[in-house]
């Protein structure tokens, strides 16, 4: 049993590789290092530096592989509005190339790293798999198209698949691997605190208990384990749902994140406050009931534990 992890040198991919290895599953990594880091790679895990658009290289890499975890792609939703063609090329055209290579080599199992970005700004109190997708960025659209590609390809060739939709991935399961995104809350807060600056809250007038927006935060190690569970289920022949939400059902507010940062770091600060950013939803929380039922998955980290792991791994 060997699985190919696309994007395995990235923040999430590196954790998925480690989770597979911890579960005794052999892994091969393919990554073009456009955002991944060689420092995140695991010693002894075969690594191929290539873009998925190179179908011939992907086909060769799939030799001896029984399944794929597909994480590679352009992941910046906001910037995707400015770079729609780049986003579609890296997220859709590249996935077509991957699926073509899989069909040509007889690889029949794939776990797709989708996104809660397919929902846009849902109005449901709790987002479920039945919530109507309404992506509001090219990034979200490409993730939904990726799910459609799997659906349609499975009608044409033997293909066992499932897609995992998740919201805000945080923390670290390995001190050597950290989230370096300049757009995510945890690394923004860590970066500002290490520079002696005060983090800011955007929007304190939301209709929530403390006035700040509530989102679903998922520890990256929990996310990685979900990919392993899905891979093992597909490998065993179990029929899975086409999509699963990975969510807490409750969510965490921005102010609660700031409070956790204060407790964990011991830095006594009061965040500055600014106006809401355009389009920032007041509450986006998902149910993880289906994933709990079929993948035995759940959120296992508290907000303090999430931030503590992010802080420990943050490069100083």
TrEMBL record:
Identify the pathway: Carbohydrate metabolism; galactose metabolism
Ranges annotated as spanning the membrane: none
What molecular function terms (GO) are annotated for this protein? UDP-glucose 4-epimerase activity
Entry keyword set:
Carbohydrate metabolism, Isomerase, NAD
Q: Where is the NAD-dependent epimerase/dehydratase domain?
A: 3-247
The UniProt catalytic activity note for this protein reads: UDP-alpha-D-glucose = UDP-alpha-D-galactose
EC numbers, comma separated = 5.1.3.2
Biological process terms from the Gene Ontology for this record are: galactose catabolic process via UDP-galactose, Leloir pathway
Cofactor dependence is on: NAD(+)
Give the UniProt family note. Answer: Belongs to the NAD(P)-dependent epimerase/dehydratase family.
> Entry's PANTHER family?
UDP-ARABINOSE 4-EPIMERASE 1, UDP-GLUCOSE 4-EPIMERASE
Q: What is this protein called?
A: UDP-glucose 4-epimerase
């Amino acid at each position: 049993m060997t699985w190919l992890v696309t994007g395995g040198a990235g923040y999430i991919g590196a954790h998925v590789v480690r989770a597979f290895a911890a579960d005794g599953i052999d892994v091969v990594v393919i990554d073009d290092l456009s955002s991944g880091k060689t420092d995140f790679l695991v010693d002894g895990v075969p690594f191929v530096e290539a873009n998925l658009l190179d179908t011939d290289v992907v086909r060769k890499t799939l030799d001896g592989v029984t399944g794929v975890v597909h994480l590679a792609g352009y992941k910046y939703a906001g910037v995707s509005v400015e770079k729609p063609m780049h986003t579609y090329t890296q997220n859709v055209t590249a996935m077509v190339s991957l699926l073509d290579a899989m069909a040509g080599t007889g690889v029949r199992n794939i776990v797709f790293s989708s996104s809660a970005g397919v929902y846009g700004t849902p109005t449901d109190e709790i987002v479920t798999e039945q919530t109507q997708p309404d992506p509001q960025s090219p990034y979200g659209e490409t993730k939904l198209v990726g799910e459609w590609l799997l659906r349609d390809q499975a009608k044409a060739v033997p293909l066992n698949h499932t897609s995992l939709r998740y919201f805000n991935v945080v923390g670290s399961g390995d001190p050597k691997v950290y989230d370096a995104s300049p757009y995510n809350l945890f690394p923004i807060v860590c970066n500002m605190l290490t520079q002696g600056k005060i983090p800011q809250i955007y929007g304190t007038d939301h209709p929530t208990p403390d006035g700040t927006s509530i989102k679903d935060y998922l520890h990256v190690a929990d996310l990685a384990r979900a990919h392993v569970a899905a891979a093992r289920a597909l490998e065993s022949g179990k029929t899975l749902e086409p999509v699963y939400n990975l969510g807490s059902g409750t969510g965490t507010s921005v102010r609660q994140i700031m409070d956790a940062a204060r407790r964990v770091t011991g830095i006594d600060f009061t965040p500055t406050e600014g106006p809401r950013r355009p389009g920032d939803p007041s509450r986006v929380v998902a149910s993880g009931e289906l994933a709990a039922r079929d993948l035995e998955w759940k959120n296992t980290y508290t907000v303090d534990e999430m931030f503590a792991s992010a802080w420990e791994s943050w490069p100083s």
